[in-house]
Amino acid sequence: MKGPSSQRDLRKLLCELLRLFYAKEWVSGTGGGICSTIGKKAVLMAPTGVHKERVTPPDLFVVDPLSGDIIRPSKNRSLQLSECNPIFCAIINRRGAGSVMHSHALSGVLAADLAGTSDHVVFEGLEMLKGIRGCSNLDKHPVPVIHNTSREPDLIGQINDMINRTDFSRSFAILVRDHGAYIWGEDVWESKRHAEIYHFLFEATVARARYRLKGGN
Amino acid sequence: MKGPSSQRDLRKLLCELLRLFYAKEWVSGTGGGICSTIGKKAVLMAPTGVHKERVTPPDLFVVDPLSGDIIRPSKNRSLQLSECNPIFCAIINRRGAGSVMHSHALSGVLAADLAGTSDHVVFEGLEMLKGIRGCSNLDKHPVPVIHNTSREPDLIGQINDMINRTDFSRSFAILVRDHGAYIWGEDVWESKRHAEIYHFLFEATVARARYRLKGGN
Amino acid sequence: MKGPSSQRDLRKLLCELLRLFYAKEWVSGTGGGICSTIGKKAVLMAPTGVHKERVTPPDLFVVDPLSGDIIRPSKNRSLQLSECNPIFCAIINRRGAGSVMHSHALSGVLAADLAGTSDHVVFEGLEMLKGIRGCSNLDKHPVPVIHNTSREPDLIGQINDMINRTDFSRSFAILVRDHGAYIWGEDVWESKRHAEIYHFLFEATVARARYRLKGGN
Amino acid sequence: MKGPSSQRDLRKLLCELLRLFYAKEWVSGTGGGICSTIGKKAVLMAPTGVHKERVTPPDLFVVDPLSGDIIRPSKNRSLQLSECNPIFCAIINRRGAGSVMHSHALSGVLAADLAGTSDHVVFEGLEMLKGIRGCSNLDKHPVPVIHNTSREPDLIGQINDMINRTDFSRSFAILVRDHGAYIWGEDVWESKRHAEIYHFLFEATVARARYRLKGGN
After folding, report:
1. Catalytic residue check, B127
2. What residues are paired with C81 via a beta bridge?
3. Residue B158 belongs to what H/E stretch?
């Protein structure tokens, strides 16, 4: 599936995906978000603090991924740019992502709980791992888990560390304890696919962890 | 996000939110409801005993929040005003709320169960706490829990006590054992955001309580 | 809420409710159904063995509730009348129901499991009990639980016994082990409300039973 | 319910069912799929690696079930045929199926977990068993469970073994550990019904297994 060829269509698609993510309870309570590059030098990004399922195409900001500066503000001048901006730009610049989504799903929070004091959770034994680019269902797939901070931009130090770690180089997701996940792909469609895959991995692994603790299989 | 500027649009929005809350199973079986102030001297309020997802704009009542009297009845003369009227008015008058919603969600019932004999439940360790006005993700956020009564208006004594308690002054929600929750905000959009946030807190805290009891993390 | 005044509108409403019940996973896999009286001498009833969310108004049968005979068949001559016919008619004739729905929801199956070897489950400690006509939230509300049979019409003996039992005279539902529930009301709207209420009671009571077994509250 | 009489309508129906299965979280992350025969000599089949809820009628391939060869490719030349092709064809050729669906539902994964080291799971004690052609609610219904492989076509050996086993001759489903399920019927409508029934059996049996482990009934 090819991404939209016009900025107009991409703006529409990002808003459609926000409504989809809202229906899945990944971006409720104004939390979460999404962005996508347009060419190499610009990123379309959702505003902060708004009901994400109600964002309209002209509400989006255009940001320079290298500087994080706003190239074109939202048409709605009362809106502020997403607090995820520095994190989205870091993932775009340093992992070559074309699109990043941020989820506040409960399954992400519970999956991060499974890490305990470790810096990662391993997902394994699931066919859906194949939905992650470069991953086989036989892989043990470690996803980094970082600590939450009081301000979202303060996550950037840990995000940068995890982005650089070679042991996490095959992961397209970072879990944030008590918070959720950042998930990305080469374009909007791969981000959507990765988002669906990782949320499945979160749910399946949490379900199996609960089950096993009770003596199951 | 600004609330609607006309009463006509506000009536439509309240009905739209009732359909949304119904889809989320917060107002099933004719339970639950919503209200919103229009200016300082009037409140739009849903009727009682009707399938909430089927309420139409002319079905709403206009109530004087200070007296609780009906200023303008529903166009449908067979409808009765919501039994939540005195509670909605108390929260508007004494907490400056512009909108209040009442939820019958199962997650609210199970979250209230967590209080045991205590008069509150503490929500903590969740990024979503930031979605509550004035709240940080590092806060321990106590939400009062009251006992259910056989008639809804009889909750008013306990509601008034909780509204006045300084230890609960940062909470925009009151849980009612075996029943659900009242959740409010400065306007309809903040009520919606708070409703989504508190229901997430209920679900996450119930899920973690179950998990921990089985020896998890 | 008044029921539809024309048979045409009632046929549409029954089909709309089947789509709603399907979305709630109460009538999946062609299971479950609904009926409603039209006047005293006729009942509109869904066909058997069809995908219930795809039933259209002319697909419905008209049945004489006293004899169970078909007064007017479905316009689609390949359709057969619901196997629930004798059970629906018994509940209409002997409990004065104006509408009966049959659910195959998992929550009904799990709620019936709670009965163990008893002939009923007691629902209590839930505000939603008020949604049952004549019921207070302080009531202990016993719902009869019968054994499943290999053919649906063979349930009729147990159904008749339970309908006559004075200790179950306030119940508008009968649970069938491993199967689901019959739920009724004075008209379509009360059946819908009762269906939503009883399914909430099933879910809440199953959730609490699981929770308590693990040492919760 | 009769299947569509024209290929045009069948193409539409398959796409509609993919959207339905997506909404049920059976085919998320581009996983899963569906096919249906048209006459004896051709099968309509979904492409691989695409968001299944976005497949359009001209995207489908026409395949010869005996050879597995493509008779008519997708109109969208960038699409590849489903990797399920050999499995779908084997089930069509050797079990007389008219339609096969492939699910990546979590409930299928958790149901397969229940098999432990056995080669099957038995479903029993559920009315919904009647929704399987030829099955009674009193039957013990064994469904084969095979091991996952790193490439989907490599499942074919185990699939062929299970298709031939007389002890599984009444099953219209094969569970794949860590992966999901293949479910079929004589036509699209029976496949849909069987899919809904088997997913219900998976969910119910997993729920009961969890419950019982904690000392329930």
Report:
1. yes
2. C47
3. helix B156-164
- The answer on pLDDT for A1 being more than 70 is no
Q: Give the neighbor-by-neighbor strand order of the sheet with B61-63.
A: B70-72, B61-63, B43-45, B33-37, B99-103, B180-185, B173-176, B141-146, B120-123
Q: Taking a contact as any Cβ pair under 8 Å apart, which residues of chain C between 170 and 199 contact chain B?
A: 189, 192-194, 196-197
Cα distance between residue C64 and residue C92, in whole Å: 11
- In chain C the domains, ranked by start, together with CATH numbers, are 7-213 (3.40.225.10)
Please, which residues bridge with residue A47 across strands?
A: A81
CA distance D116 to C43: 49
- Answer for the pair B154, B59: CB distance below 8 angstroms, yes or no: no
Q: Provide the pLDDT for residue D217.
A: 35
pLDDT at position A17 is 98
Neighbours of chain D (3+ CB pairs under 8 A): A, C
Using DSSP's 3-state secondary structure scheme, residue D171 falls into coil
User: Is residue D102 helix, strand or coil?
Assistant: strand
Query: What is the number of residues in chain C?
Result: 217
The 10s digit of each residue's pLDDT in B38-52 is 988 999 999 999 999
Residues C94-114 as b or e (16 or more Cβ within 10 Å = b)? ebebbbbbbbbbbbbbbbbbb
pLDDT above 70: residue C59:
yes
CA distances from D156 to A9, D84, D86, D143 (A): 41, 9, 7, 17
Model confidence at B5, pLDDT cuts 50, 70, 90, reads confident
Task: Give the one of A131, A203, A214 whose C-beta lies nearest to D30's C-beta.
Answer: A131
C50 and C59 in contact (C-beta within 8 Å)?
Answer: yes
CB atoms < 10 A from the CB of D157, how many?
11
Confidence of residue B211 (pLDDT cuts 50, 70, 90): confident
Gap between the Cα atoms of C10 and C37, Å rounded: 10
Higher pLDDT, A152 or A18: A18
Residue C215 confidence (pLDDT) = 37
Q: In what order do the strands lie in the sheet with A99-103?
A: A70-72, A61-63, A43-45, A33-37, A99-103, A180-185, A173-176, A141-146, A120-123
Distance of alpha carbon C136 from alpha carbon C134, whole angstroms: 7
Catalytic residue among C25, C127, C152, C196: C127
Does B150 lie at the interface with C, CB-CB under 8 angstroms? yes
Q: Which H or E element spans position A176?
A: strand A173-176
